[in-house]
């Protein structure tokens, strides 16, 4: 029989070995090796467990190779029953083709970029299409589409994922006033000096938070790293956008403290480098986890 002391030592050795492996993988560029294996196990379950997939997204980042499938499952573009995937995929293709054909007949697709075609398809599908539509009026959707075009290659995937994500985000719009209030409170807590300065120059109350939340920072943060924030949103935490906003502002403090008006603040936020964006995403996830990320209880969108 192994006594308790030996058992504790063996257990500790196993944990230390796992931690050593994780640290080693991270140093040599394989940070997500173990997470990837865990996700692949989840994706083999029959039927797939949506709750477990959400938990995974909240705890880890989704590997790029699996984002297409995982996001489709979370956004209910595909059902949890794998045997139905082929049929549903064909139905999505057919509906996409019908929408595109309708736009071609109406000659709406002439001389407009693909991103605007996708917006027109969404408007048509939602009964909002007009002949004199400004396709960039749906700025949140337009920005999300452009980011999805970075992540995925196939037009059908881009459309359905952008549509699904934008429709999902719209369910949280009733919560935006509370999120704006939470953003102000968190900034005051994290950096009182910056908070006071932005208030003094009347920038804090006029930040375009509604627009940022509407597109989930598409077009503001580099697409390469933005997917990690979207993983958390699709996992169920729209509130991570509060932390994203605060980290963006505090990470640019040295520039923002020199600003004397809102335009200066917006200009700096709109010119975040790829390197700074990566640091912002890392800090966002860290702060979000430290302050009680919803790993068991999801944000509840409006039905």
Describe this structure in words.
The protein is mainly α and 303 residues long. The chain has 16 helices and no strands. Helix 12 runs parallel beside helix 16. It starts with a helix and ends in a 13-residue tail after the last helix. The model is unreliable at 6-30 (pLDDT under 50).
- Class by alpha and beta content: mainly alpha
N→C terminal distance = 56 Å
Q: What is the share of helical residues?
A: 55-70%
How many beta-strand runs?
0
Query: Which band does the percent of strand residues land in?
Result: under 5%
Output the helix-strand order. Answer: HHHHHHHHHHHHHHHH
Please mark out the parts with pLDDT under 50 across 5 or more consecutive residues, or reply none.
6-30
User: Could you describe the largest sheet, including whether it forms a barrel?
Assistant: none
Shape: globular
The averaged pLDDT comes out at 87
**Rg calculated over all Cα atoms:** 22 Å
- Number of discrete helical segments: 16
Could you name the key traits of this structure?
mainly alpha, 0% strand, globular, 303 residues
Short précis:
The chain is mainly α and 303 residues long. It has 16 helices and no strands.
Which secondary structure elements does this structure contain, and how are they paired or packed?
Layout: H1 4-27, H2 33-42, H3 50-59, H4 64-74, H5 85-105, H6 114-125, H7 139-151, H8 155-170, H9 176-190, H10 192-200, H11 209-215, H12 223-235, H13 240-251, H14 253-256, H15 262-269, H16 274-290
Helix pairs in contact: 3-12, 5-6, 6-7, 7-8, 7-11, 9-10, 9-13, 12-16, 13-16
């Amino acid at each position: 029989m192994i006594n308790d002391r030996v058992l504790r030592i063996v257990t500790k050795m196993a944990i230390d070995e796992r931690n050593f492996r994780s640290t080693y993988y991270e140093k040599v560029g394989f940070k997500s090796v173990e997470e990837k294996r865990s996700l692949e196990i989840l994706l083999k379950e029959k039927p797939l467990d949506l709750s477990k997939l959400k938990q995974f997204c909240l705890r880890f980042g989704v590997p790029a190779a699996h984002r297409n499938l995982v996001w489709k499952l979370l956004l209910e573009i595909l059902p949890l029953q794998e045997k139905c995937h082929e049929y549903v995929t064909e139905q999505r293709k057919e509906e996409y083709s019908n929408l595109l054909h309708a736009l071609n007949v109406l000659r709406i697709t002439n001389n407009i970029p693909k991103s605007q075609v996708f917006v027109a398809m969404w408007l048509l599908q939602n009964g909002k299409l007009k002949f004199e539509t400004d396709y960039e009026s749906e700025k949140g959707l337009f920005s999300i589409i452009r980011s999805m075009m970075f992540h995925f290659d196939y037009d059908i995937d881009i459309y359905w994922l952008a549509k699904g994500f934008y429709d999902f985000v719209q369910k949280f719009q009733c919560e935006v006033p509370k999120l704006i209030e939470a953003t102000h409170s968190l900034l005051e807590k994290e950096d009182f000096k910056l908070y006071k300065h932005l208030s003094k120059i009347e920038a804090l109350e006029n930040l375009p938070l509604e627009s940022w939340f509407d597109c989930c920072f598409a077009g503001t943060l580099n697409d390469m790293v933005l997917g990690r924030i979207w993983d958390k949103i699709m996992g169920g935490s729209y509130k991570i956008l509060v932390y994203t906003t605060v980290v963006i502002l505090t990470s640019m403090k040295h520039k923002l403290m020199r600003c004397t008006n809102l335009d200066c603040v917006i200009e700096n936020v709109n010119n975040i480098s790829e390197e700074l964006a990566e640091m912002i995403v890392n800090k966002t996830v860290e702060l979000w986890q430290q302050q009680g990320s919803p790993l068991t209880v999801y944000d509840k969108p409006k039905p």
